[in-house]
Design goal:
seven-stranded antiparallel sheet; 3 helices; 171 residues; mainly beta; 36% strand; single chain; 13% helix
Length: 171
């Protein structure tokens, strides 16, 4: 069982910090707005990205996400987009539980020093992820053998969820 408990999206721009930060309740959570271009799809894509599943939305890496994560975003004033801000850095932080343990995944979308195929796994909830007592492991996605390698994120996720996925032979 994978239970999504909290999602935080941080976008640092030339005009300040923006993003989304919300816990999720047990049961059904509805993400809605009265209008398009309000971030509903961006929230779902961020969850896929944090789990290394962005191939579901058409590719690998940050290029699969909307430009608000890695290029620019529009600043709204009085109900209309009045200015554009350059994205300097962005990240997705996702807290999940398997029913026994809670972990938090952090994956950068745009960062000059950290590659997008790195996912940091914090063995704590999102509120305590930066505590000195929290164990952090860096793991990788979208690399050869990353599903079976000790530091492969999807290997960790498989074990965390108590699943055994079949081995698929190469062509």
């Amino acid at each position: 069982m994978l239970k999504i408990q909290h999602l935080r999206i941080v976008i640092r721009s030339s005009q300040g910090d923006y993003g989304f930060d919300s816990p999720f309740s047990s049961g059904l959570n509805i993400i809605a707005s009265d209008d398009n271009t309000r971030g509903k799809s961006s929230i779902l894509h961020a969850i896929y990205y944090a789990l290394g599943f962005e191939e579901i939305i058409g590719g690998k890496g940050a290029k699969t996400l909307q430009k608000a994560y890695n290029d620019s975003l529009y600043i709204e004033s009085n109900g209309s987009a009045s200015a554009s801000a350059l994205v300097l850095e962005s990240e997705v932080i996702l807290e999940v539980s398997n029913g026994v343990e809670t972990v938090t995944f952090k994956r950068f979308v745009k960062n000059e020093k950290v590659k997008e195929n790195l996912i940091s796994v914090y063995h704590s909830d999102i509120a305590n992820m930066y505590d000195s007592e929290t164990t952090v492991e860096d793991m990788f996605v979208h690399m050869q053998n990353s599903t079976i390698w000790q530091r492969g994120f999807h290997r960790f996720l498989e074990e965390f969820l108590g699943m055994t996925l079949p081995l698929v032979p190469a062509n």
